Amino acid sequence: MSCETIGAKAAFELDQELMSTGGFTLDQLMELAGLSVAHAVYKVHPPSKGDRILVFCGPGNNGILPY
């Protein structure tokens, strides 16, 4: 499975655009981010591989993702 990433500055700019012109709230963006992570984990670790997953989150605003 491949995953495309963007840098912190581009992510910040995208968030700002989605909130200003897209009408998304921060809570909605966090929910979508969490759903995206869950989707990616499910692809590489389906329930048939076990039912436990450990998630580590660093400090800063990015730590809100498990929200």
TrEMBL record:
Q: Which InterPro entries match?
A: YjeF_N_dom (IPR004443), YjeF_N_dom_sf (IPR036652)
Using the record's annotation, list all stretches that form the YjeF N-terminal domain.
Answer: 11-67
Q: What Pfam families would the database entry show?
A: YjeF_N
Q: What is this protein called?
A: YjeF N-terminal domain-containing protein
Q: Which PROSITE patterns match?
A: YJEF_N
The superkingdom of the source organism is Eukaryota
